[in-house]
Amino acid sequence: MSEVGGSQGRRREAAGPASGVPSEQLDTVSGANESGTVSDGGAGAALLRISHLRKAYGSNVVLRDLSLDVPDHQCVALIGASGSGKSTLLRCINLLEVVEDGQVFLQGKDITDPRVDGDTVRTTVGIVFQSFNLFPHMTVLDNITLAPRRVHRVGRRAAEADGMAMLERVGLADKASAKPDELSGGQQQRVAIARALVGKPLLMLFDEVTSALDPELVGEVLDLLAELREDGMTMLVATHEMSFARQVADRVVFLADGEVAEEGSPQQIFDGPTDPRTQRFLRRILDGGRL
Ligand SMILES: Nc1ncnc2c1ncn2[C@@H]1O[C@H](COP(=O)(O)OP(=O)(O)OP(=O)(O)O)[C@@H](O)[C@H]1O
Ligand SMILES: [Mg+2]
Known about the structure:
Layout: E1 48-57, E2 60-70, E3 75-79, H1 86-93, E4 101-106, E5 109-110, H2 118-124, E6 125-128, H3 140-150, H4 156-169, H5 185-197, E7 203-207, H6 215-231, E8 234-238, H7 242-247, E9 251-256, E10 259-264, H8 266-271, H9 276-287
Parallel strand pairs: 3-8, 3-9, 6-7, 7-8
Antiparallel strand pairs: 1-2, 1-4, 4-5, 9-10
Helix pairs in contact: 3-4, 3-5, 4-5, 5-6
């Protein structure tokens, strides 16, 4: 199992890529808000609040009544059996899926309101998948600057300065001119993370970002996630890496039967789970030597 995250110690002041996001950023997410008819998540709401979410594929109800909060600057690990709906949940938050019922609030704004623009939400909520999806014919720096330049019309010079700063952040400034296939899997995934961070998202979603990596490369990516947490990034991380969930996450959420079966501190979940489904899941992991 890979070593992750140095210290569980005191969080640095938010000074990393997560910082500097204007608080009014989300005003643009919900233009509908001007009408005053879009509900909000309530005063003092978490950065992300998921309320009674329901998502089905045909007759397969994947998320049936799922509620979950992700507070500002916290790293929440999402664990659960294969098929329990972790990826589906992340895709719903990022509006890559249409939900049947329930709401997702970001900074108190209901982003599941049909009038909300999905592309705007996706610039605010970054997502990184298991597969890196880098363009093979483009350099690392061009991969990172593509969206700022094409979508957000940032000038080349400014986009490249931001891109280089982000490559510096993930420890890959020396690979700016390389093509993705000249990089290791772990390095490619760090580039994919840099690409998601360059738009200064408020929230990052990670979906099994180490699953496609050779075991010896897993640690460098999990270490980067641990650093982002230390920087104050708000993160929801679907993972099978129990060491990460245990050592780095502020809270652990266990999904089963389409809902949050149990949530708590890593210590609560791993050392004293109370729901029989969590107990069974962790026993299987333990028996498999993965905890
Ligand atoms: N696009 C889709 N169309 C139909 N069914 C889907 C689709 N995506 C997911 N599902 C179904 O939804 C359920 C949850 O899948 P999901 O990928 O969210 O699980 P997961 O918890 O991420 O699993 P894993 O740990 O294996 O990644 C599964 O039964 C799956 O077959
Ligand atoms: Mg998944």
